[in-house]
Amino acid sequence: MAKHEHVRVAVIGSGFGGLGAAVRLRREGITDFVVLERADSVGGTWRDNSYPGCACDVPSHLYSFSFAPNPDWPRTFSGQRHIRAYLEHVTDTFGIRPHLRLGHEVRKMTWDSEALRWEIETGQGSFSADVVVSATGPLSDPKIPDIEGLAEFPGKVFHSARWDHDYDLTGKRVAMIGTGASAIQIVPAIQPRVGKLTLFQRTPPWVMRRMDRAISGPERWLHRALPVTGTLRRGLLWGIRELQVGAFTKHPNELGLVEKLAKANIAKSIKDPVLRAKLTPSYRIGCKRILLSSTYYPAVAQPNVDVVAAGLREVRGSTLVAADGTETEVDAIIFGTGFHVTDMPIAERVVGAEGKTLAETWKGGMEALRGATAAGFPNFMTVIGPNTGLGNSSMILMIESQLNYMADYLRQLDVLGGRAALAVRPSAVGAWNRKVQARMERTVWKAGGCESWYLDSNGRNTTLWPGTTGEFRRETRQVDLSEYEVVRAPKPVKPAAAKTRAATRKQEAAQ
């Protein structure tokens, strides 16, 4: 018989969001919870993305939990290996291992309106939970475009987030599809050893120099000996980015100076005017995420690299055909084409109070109150939910704000007592979303003249937060019960009352 376990809280995912939720639950004195993870280890996107050159574009001391500072970051911008090790360290330090259920991919979650709990089906048994915290994250499920003939390609094909480390790229003819954050790290990492590298670029990114360096031994010693110095360093990094927010969200024209610096960066590295024209964007800087690399342009300028300024249209055997008709023979195709961000697959597996999936509810666009709760899904919260992403700072700041909201949500349930649930009012979700979308109109992400993964199929930006992280922290400090309906479990029918009702129904049927 398949095992079944009931818990107060079920957390889905074990990346920064899921582990952060687990730590916060323990700090709130809640130990009756599980963390359901589909893989065989923790780490989320920092476990899945192990491609050559993988690193973070947010400074290390800001890309870590405030409650778990790491004085031993080796570089100002740390690589995937060190970030994953940090998450393993957090897991052990805060006693999360006993709560982990690895290899438990969630197949379906259904709200039981009678019992006021979530029924959860996984690949290794079932669970039920009073509250579900979904922390699967938007960068979980790779997106590969539907390309005609791709299935018949005789060579190797993989996504950057599913890197095949057993495949040797040495001397191979390789196609890199896409020019996003992953691609600009992969290109310089593999360019020296491949035979030929063809970069298929639909839209060029803006790339600034990456001011990365090794953190010295004395610096690390100082952060260990005087932890306040690490706190001050984190605070300085945070403050600088808070001051930049206005240019992105209110005054995009102020980004003109940054754009000039980015153009100077291109001119310094790319001497060929034809290639320079291909690599120079025509939209306002910041409309897409500004990428950081000091090695991308020098790599692209090498003789064994070709830039095709068009997307991949068709595959004919070993020949790749671009939208502009360019044909290229390759041995391997690497997709750096991003993730299912505005159409997360987990949403298809969550069935709410009205029998609709979260994907059906979000068909017209994702929306959730304060990025956390969606109408029709009682006692269900998302971490890194709709409109909580950032264009210039650390997502860890947003995650910690949402964990504050989660903690107060659970406190409110405790105060209510008995079998109860909180169902967010559709009017509250609507009011919040209208306010966010109204502010979005003046941001560089909407007014900058580009198409990006920030926008959904309807052209709405349902991913980013149009304000400072400090403002979001204030908005999620506590739950406003006026935005919720308190749902109580139906009272059991007494035997006498049940008999009376049955007799009444019998009489009505006879009439």
TrEMBL record:
Record key words, sorted: FAD, Flavoprotein, Monooxygenase, NADP, Oxidoreductase
InterPro entries, alphabetized: FAD-bind_Monooxygenase_sf, FAD/NAD-bd_sf, Flavin_mOase-like
Pfam families according to UniProt: FMO-like
Biased composition (Low complexity): 492-501
Keyword presence, NADP: yes
Region (Disordered): 492-511
Keyword Flavoprotein (UniProt): yes
Cofactor annotation: FAD
GO molecular function terms attached to this record: flavin adenine dinucleotide binding; N,N-dimethylaniline monooxygenase activity; NADP binding
Annotated family: Belongs to the FAD-binding monooxygenase family.
Task of the protein: Catalyzes a Baeyer-Villiger oxidation reaction, i.e. the insertion of an oxygen atom into a carbon-carbon bond adjacent to a carbonyl, which converts ketones to esters or lactones using NADPH and/or NADH as an electron donor. Thus, can convert bicyclo[3.2.0]hept-2-en-6-one into the oxidative lactone products 2-oxabicyclo[3.3.0]oct-6-en-3-one and 3-oxabicyclo[3.3.0]oct-6-en-2-one. Is also able to catalyze the sulfoxidation of methyl phenyl sulfide (thioanisole).
Name this polypeptide is given: Baeyer-Villiger monooxygenase
Protein species of origin: Streptomyces venezuelae (strain ATCC 10712 / CBS 650.69 / DSM 40230 / JCM 4526 / NBRC 13096 / PD 04745)
